């Protein structure tokens, strides 16, 4: 059996949303790349994006008013992601939700993603899965990120992946 896991560090994306379930939509997209490049964009809601969950707002700390004032147009965010990740695979720890929110973003602006979104668990081995939660807790403690935001979450996931990979595969070099 061949090892389908990437031998380099993956691009990680995270999406914050207006809530969960039917009607929810992406409010922020962030990513973290090998080499340390980070991106974060608030997304201005489309006119038919009206669902809002106060519980979700308490978690991410972004109000709808902030999105309306400071959010980028959905088309700008989708085009940026397409330019950045054309032909690549990007990984998420919440594939089901993030896939649905990306679809909502791209459908709203009549575009198609130029990249593949995959579940981060697809590239984790048994050892990495077993040590994931403890490593993530240590990374969160070390980073001391104060806000639950997309780019910070993507960085936490990226660094957790790198640390678990190094611990579980000492001969691995990225």
Automatic annotation (TrEMBL):
SUPFAM superfamilies the UniProt entry points to: Ribonuclease H-like (SSF53098)
Q: Which InterPro entries match?
A: RNaseH-like_sf, RNaseH_sf
Specify the superkingdom: Bacteria
Q: Which GO molecular function annotation, any one, does this entry have?
A: nucleic acid binding
**What protein name is recorded for this chain?**
Exonuclease
Natural source organism:
Azonexus fungiphilus
